[in-house]
Amino acid sequence: MQVPLLFNPIALNSIRINTPIQAAIVDLDGTMVDTLGDFAAALNGMLADLALPAITTATIEPMVGKGSEHLLNLVLKHALAQSAPAQAAINSEALFERAWDRYQHHYLAINGQFSQLYPGVLAGLQAMQQRGWKLACLTNKPTAFALPLLQAKGLDSFFSQVFGGDAFERKKPDPLPLLKTCEALGTLPQHTLMLGDSRNDAQAARAAGCPVLLVRYGYNHGEPVEAVDTDGLLDSLADLAQR
Ligand SMILES: O=C(O)COP(=O)(O)O
Ligand SMILES: [Mg+2]
User: Fold this and answer.
1) Which of 89, 159, 196, 206 could be disulfide-bonded to 27 (CB atoms 3.0-4.6 Å)?
2) In terms of CATH architecture, what is 36-110?
3) Least confident window among 14-28, 41-55, 124-138
4) What is the mean pLDDT of the chain?
5) Rounded CA gap, 96 and 114, in Å?
6) Crossing angle of helices 36-49/68-82, nearest 10°?
């Protein structure tokens, strides 16, 4: 099949992707929106309801990226370890159900209020749209958190598909969500670029056969993103506006 001219391989400064790109799958937390303030507000609301000590944004940052269940487990363990001996003896699993309920309540109440778009996100999405790429948002965040956040930040209209961490049987770094998203977009993985901020995104992309670029900002579990196996790093999604 003749590939339309718009879908060229990518050549940006030092980055070369030698396969035509027809679509992009874009991660949400740490890539498009800096949501640490939302995580902190919702988690601290939950911790207060459970009479547990508050947690700082700096402690939360390396815990983000593997979905809300994972985050909540780490936060509960951390908070219990900071508590008085009687509470510290409590198993975090015993608190999980109540914590999850309170966390959802608080997250949905503040969703987007303490988070900001990263610079260059709108320009980057517009550039990808102008290249004629189909766009999907794929996040490990629950879909019920992702949809209102995209709306609140004016990003929803860019995406034909939005899939959260609960949309498929497994989350990133498993390749399944990427393969399913490619299926929904109607594109082959080798023509579908993954844009993310963490090794989760890169590992999932490599295993699915998608080219992958990561942004230099974002979370990446508190580790330098330079160490991750990718096809290149971007200072901002607006780098994609270069020709
Ligand atoms: O909620 C998370 O764990 C992170 O979500 P992300 O996949 O959009 O980075
Ligand atoms: Mg992310």
Assistant:
1) 196
2) Orthogonal Bundle (1.10)
3) 14-28
4) 92
5) 24
6) 50
Mean pLDDT of 222-230: 93
The model's pLDDT over 88-120, given as tens digits with 9 standing for 90+, comes to 777 888 899 999 999 999 999 999 999 999 999
What percentage of the chain reaches a pLDDT higher than 90? 83
Of ligand 1's listed atoms, the one at least distance from the Cα of 198 is: 9
Q: Bigger pLDDT: 29 or 19? A: 29
Q: Whose CA is nearest to atom 5 of ligand 1?
A: 140
29, pLDDT greater than 60? yes
Residue 5 pLDDT > 50, yes or no? no
For residue 128, give the amino acid letter.
M
Question: Which residues are known catalytic residues?
Answer: 27
Q: Is the CB of 65 under 6 A from ligand 1?
A: yes
CATH superfamily of 10-34+116-241: HAD superfamily/HAD-like (3.40.50.1000)
List CB contacts of 133: < 8 A, sequence separation 6 or more.
7, 21, 22, 23, 24, 193
Q: Please list the helix, strand and coil fractions of the chain in percent, rounded to the nearest 5, in that order.
A: 50, 15, 40
Contact 68, 171 (CB under 8 A): no
Instruction: Assess whether the C-beta atom of 27 lies below 6 angstroms from ligand 1.
Output: yes
**Cβ of 120 below 6 Å from ligand 1:** no
Q: Are both 10-34+116-241 and 36-110 of the same fold? A: no
Ligand 1 centroid from CA 149, angstroms: 12
Phi first, then psi, for residue 153 (nearest 5°) are: -95, 5
* Nearest CA residue ID for atom 1, ligand 1: 141
